[in-house]
Design goal:
Helix content: 40-55%
Radius of gyration: 27 Å
Shape: elongated
Number of helices: 14
Number of strands: 16
CATH class of the largest domain: Alpha Beta
Strand order of the largest sheet: 8-9-7-10-11-12
CATH superfamily of the largest domain: P-loop containing nucleotide triphosphate hydrolases
Low-confidence stretches: 1-11, 130-150, 216-221
Mean pLDDT: 79
Strand content: 15-25%
Number of domains: 4
CATH architecture of the largest domain: 3-Layer(aba) Sandwich
CATH topology of the largest domain: Rossmann fold
Largest sheet: 6 strands, mixed
Order of helices and strands: EHEHEHEHHEEHEHEEHHEHEHEHEHEEHE
Distance between the termini: 58 Å
Amino acid sequence: MQPVSRGRPGGARDPDRQLEEAVGLAAAINLAVARAEKVRLDTARPGTFLGPGTVEWLHALVAELEITLVVINAALSPIQQRNLERALQTKVIDRTGLILEIFGARARTHEGRLQVELAALTYQRSRLVRSWTHLERQRGGFGFMGGPGESQLEIDRRLTDERIGKLRRELEGVKRTRGLHRRARKRVPYPVVALVGYTNAGKSTLFNRLAGAKVMARDLLFATLDPTMRRIKLQAGRQIILSDTVGFISELPTNLVAAFRATLEEVSEADIVVHVRDAANDDSVSQKQDVDQVLADLGVGEDPPPIEALNKIDLLDPGARQALAERAARNHDVVLISAVTGEGGEELLRAVERRLSAARVVRDFDVDLVDGAAIAWLYAHGDVIRRTDDDTRAHLTVSLDLADAARFLDRFAGVRGPGDQTA
């Protein structure tokens, strides 16, 4: 296999890191990498992407090493992919195709499989011509199969379009179901805290550490595809829903973002976003920019900004670790953690708790003692700071979300709530 990374002079990403990431993507689906090279490319050729000298060199290398698959770490047009396969006389896929292969191998839930298939069919539709060498043949058909004289390519495209339409309708159903689940959670309600980050930043390891779960967590790109949620209790007793999400990556194919929008909407609907970063990765700043861009595309704003969990501090040398510790000391929204050792986990949860408390109000309520449902609701949805009872009424001071305070007064119309203040 031959991953080829396009060098970008002056670009934000280091070419060596780009190549290393491409090799990691190959390893994620157990491909044996025979050779990994960077190729300087100033201008992409419309026919073959690579220049003629590079193509000739690759052809000789493919023959010498008996390579059966060449991966180009860039987006290829269908024509470029087809021409390269002819020139190299072996299978060629681009970055998008490689990521789709990984997603196809990893998706476990029904929703995940639907999303992957939709992305794959959308990608393959423009490449159908590659699969047929007999397009001059015509196949007759019945009315419902496209009519007389329809070519095999036309049949394949029509069937693909029909399947794409069916998948989109099914995913719309998934979207509606997720919306119902979100509304149900808001009625409970438990705040949702979503873990996001570049692929292999350690989100699933952190999720397992905090939630006591057993989500697949390995040193692989895209180890997690299907979102997972667990309810956990914070130190002060408040409960939250922790959500593990699919990892982001640079130049994530547009059709993949579109296909996984139903899943990614969980991030846009989250009360708090925790951005898990690989602090030991030299490319951490560029990775942060990629994640920030995807979050912006999803409509996740910077007000308030995500909490940054700088992970893998156990891999840092003392100097680098001290520099990050000084930064965290100046910003309460930055926490140093090691998902592997557990260091910093409690501080991260305290940061989540601080963020939740900042969005709360403290209210006084006078509730009739016989109205047990109202009193129980306040205990279930808020933190009762103080309570005094007289002969007929309970006087409670409660810290709770502003939306819950309004919801409570709307639901229990006979309760008096004289005022509020920020928690």
